[in-house]
Amino acid sequence: MKKRLTDIVRCPVCIGRLTLHVARETAAADAGGADIEEGFLACSGCGLLYPVIAGVPRLIRNAYEEYSAFYQQHREMISRIGGQEALSKRIDALPPSMFDRRSNESFGLQWQMHQYDDHTWFKDDDNLRKNEFLDSMGLRAEDLRGRLLLDAGCGNGNLTGSVAHYGAEIVGMDLSLSIERAHQNRARFAGAQAGNVHFVQGNVMEPPFAPETFDHIHTSGVLHHTPSTERAFASFLRLGRPGGRVYVQLYRRREAWVRIINQILRSITTRMPVRMLYQLCYLMVPAHTFLVGIVARLRGERSPLPAFSRRERAISMFDHFSPKYQYRYTPEQVRAMFEGAGLLSVRDVTFENEARHMVAFLGEKPETACVESAAS
Hints:
Elements: E1 18-26, E2 35-43, E3 49-53, E4 56-59, H1 63-66, H2 68-73, H3 75-81, H4 84-92, H5 101-113, H6 125-137, E5 148-152, H7 158-163, E6 169-174, H8 178-184, H9 186-190, E7 197-202, E8 216-220, H10 229-237, E9 245-251, H11 256-269, H12 274-283, H13 285-298, H14 310-321, H15 331-340, E10 344-348, E11 358-364
Parallel strand pairs: 4-7, 5-6, 5-8, 6-7, 8-9
Antiparallel strand pairs: 1-2, 2-3, 3-4, 9-11, 10-11
Helix pairs in contact: 5-14, 12-14, 13-14
């Protein structure tokens, strides 16, 4: 992480400011300054400590549980900052985290299996998705110069890093361990602009940022995988500044007969060990491709899947059948969510090449009036 990131991040528990304590750093590889590889971020409000591991701040409420070995390794440093006993008491007093371990493991494995020369959801990442970002946000390249953006649920970080080429500073947040790989490859995506790309492990239900931090906010294929899409939307929405763009992409509601079959299958697959399920998905690719083709013909569509690799198809299946939570919406429901939150210029911006499975909307936060919480 860059020291600049401390100006942006906050404690996910109390939104207090965070002070950086460095255990290990490396010399600057770009204009952004030194890279902090290990250390802690100490909250000035509640006193909690969040680790920086492999260059990524782990700003999740249950960091102590997830990274207990790192805390033990740095006991002396913790004692200098505030003491292990005091920290343990503060951690014990925390309410339970909104942490979905199943989805965390699923997406971590999914992005581990995904290779950077693969197509993400059957698209050319280096060209199509980068240009689609501008269209989906309703912005020109020059509109992003000098702006601060959030990509919530950034996955492998490819799209996040590529947006920096437009002159933006951007933070990619993801709950899964895919965030480590995204950080390691940021120079591959952003090139000379890598210093303006930050990656944070965080939970969109408990985002580690202060309200109204970002000029524009973007989340694609994420909120429907949380315990409550509406609560996640409300948390996400608070992070955008007045006048900023808000983009959300969700799964589209399917026909009743497809939905019922999927619910039956998911009642089994979401209980399977994630690695076992991935292997099953890989084995079932030919049968699944055949069935998808039949469904497409019943709908009067052309064959929906181009000739991509078996691994890419297996990853797509795994993405559908593994996460614990998966909610689907109609365009009318998403529009109502946006308008109910007080967003302006609300419009359906779903791309034709995604309309079979996804629905995407864009809105703007009012310049003056506060946006009403979507959860109210």
